[in-house]
Amino acid sequence: MFEKVLTPSDVGKLNRLVIPKQYAEKYFPLGGGDSAESKGLLLSLEDESGMCWRFRYSYWNSSQSYVLTKGWSRYVKDKRLDAGDVVLFQRHRIQPNRLFIGWRRGYLNGGFTVSEHVGKGDMNGNKNGVQLGWTTGFYSEHRSYPIHHRHFPYLHAGGGSQQDQKQRTPMRNSSNFRVLRLFGVNMECQTQNDSETLSSYNMSPSTPSTTTHHLYHLSQPSYSSTSNHHYLNMLQM
Amino acid sequence: MFEKVLTPSDVGKLNRLVIPKQYAEKYFPLGGGDSAESKGLLLSLEDESGMCWRFRYSYWNSSQSYVLTKGWSRYVKDKRLDAGDVVLFQRHRIQPNRLFIGWRRGYLNGGFTVSEHVGKGDMNGNKNGVQLGWTTGFYSEHRSYPIHHRHFPYLHAGGGSQQDQKQRTPMRNSSNFRVLRLFGVNMECQTQNDSETLSSYNMSPSTPSTTTHHLYHLSQPSYSSTSNHHYLNMLQM
DNA sequence: CCCTCGACCTGTAAG
DNA sequence: ACTTACAGGTCGAGG
């Protein structure tokens, strides 16, 4: 259905995820517009491991925003999401009432750039190497994302549909940004800032925001993956 | 019945007082456990001047806490309570349905330790010298607090069968604190911190929290006090 | 408009 | 390691 690059607020202490209004109203209509409206509802979404996550979904009049509240912070913590990472919302092709949530690392997060940890106390080393992520479980992508069986389609889009996994890219750093070529695509990455918790919100704009390449990272290597899994691991520099 | 050292939240903008669960369930049972349960109820309590205060008392499912809500902020304002101060809840010895509310200054509040003001913007000068408080009005203390007609019973004063629980230890650390001897008792007090508004929550543990010595500060010096008033003023070290 | 209030929520620290 | 208590928050309704 859609995805969102997480802002610092989305992963911070506010314990809520703002759903972009356009998607919210399109995919998660609230109340129906007549009677039982904005009391909020409970969304149940399956993650890459089949686990069900329940989120309270509601509309905040004060900010005119649609948000996930209860349950969200647990998800963030469990998946170790950071600003710049991406969450995905998908619907089952056959059973439309079955919803899925997934995620992937932002290009600048996820184990590279050791000094790039958002928020203090993040150097827990939990991001090293292993990238958990959405596995597209029971979902065959090619309907919801008809043409996106490519990596970085907006730039290039290599065509392989299967596991190109672990193409860890060097992503080398120099001063602060460095261009690396990944799948034949030039990318910019911030590397090692001087010290501070640079708000990764600043860096979000540099990431290709709403593109729908599917760079999934397997959560359990032995997951019962059926076919269409695309995953990629970018390498610690 | 019991008392509580007020936290910043208890006197802040949340407009509620959390009643420790053990006391709440012991003294203010809600709902009776069968039918009309946790709809909350209205508590009427007399203060030191005989004035009646009404508070809404209820249970918050979400946080599993018992709270006073409506009416509480008025009380805080009226008595000029601050974090570290103590509120007391008592029951009439003869007429058990008659409830009383009282309070006293925390040892670190109330006009001493000028640098020790909790929360920002607290230096309103309202606390200078005069200590308002519970006067034990119609209440003869010696039942509810049988042997505690002493100061600092937790340090001295004998082992009454009742409320000696939570003998919070001085727990003071080093550099910022100073030991002073007062009424023959060694006490540690924070002196002149380096700068910050030390959250008085941090200081709560240093106050003898739930001990039941009766250090009442007369509200009106000319109040029709009967007998059992103990008051104490600590000096700025 | 601001404040109170009611209901909900969460991180943390104890036990 | 789990559970609980609760301090410190949120939003939204209502006055």
From TrEMBL, chains A, B:
TF-B3 domain location: 2-107
Compartment(s): Nucleus
MF GO annotations: DNA binding; DNA-binding transcription factor activity
GO cellular component: nucleus
Keywords linked to the UniProt accession: DNA-binding, Nucleus, Transcription, Transcription regulation
Pfam families reported in the protein's UniProt record: B3
Principal location: nucleus
Keyword Nucleus found: yes
The keyword Isomerase appears for this protein: no
SMART domains: B3
PANTHER family per UniProt: B3 DOMAIN-CONTAINING PROTEIN OS11G0156000 (PTHR31140:SF70), B3 DOMAIN-CONTAINING TRANSCRIPTION FACTOR ABI3 (PTHR31140)
Protein name: TF-B3 domain-containing protein
